[in-house]
Amino acid sequence: MDLSNHELHDKDFYAWTKKTAQLLKEGKINEVDVMNIAEELEDMGISNKRALISCFSVLIAHLLKWKFQKERRGKSWRLTIKGQRLRIQDLLQESPSLKHQIELRLSIAYIDARLMAEKETGLNIDTFSEECPFTLEQCLDEEFWPE
Length: 147
Prior knowledge:
147 residues; mainly alpha
């Protein structure tokens, strides 16, 4: 028994994506599961935003570690900072409208980063200010290394 495109979404997501793509390519718009496509597109946008915030959290945590544990600075931290900056630039290049979202959510990324830095450094959370000490521009600046 053949499942409808809508039923297929819940039973076999991969098969649903393949079938939906084929229906769209063939111009069979009336057979397309429009509601699930809309939901999946929204989820993709949310996923990209979460990925960006996650990258910022890791980046800021490492900038905090760099600032507060000078004696432990090393190649690994430097590469993590550079790598996160590259990932962020890539995400922003693919979806420039996310830059506005991160401006709004930098404080959320910082809360997570502060907790990560506390856990990874062993320093008391009060060591790190309640407000992010770095601007968005500093975070993205390849030449910025907090002292």
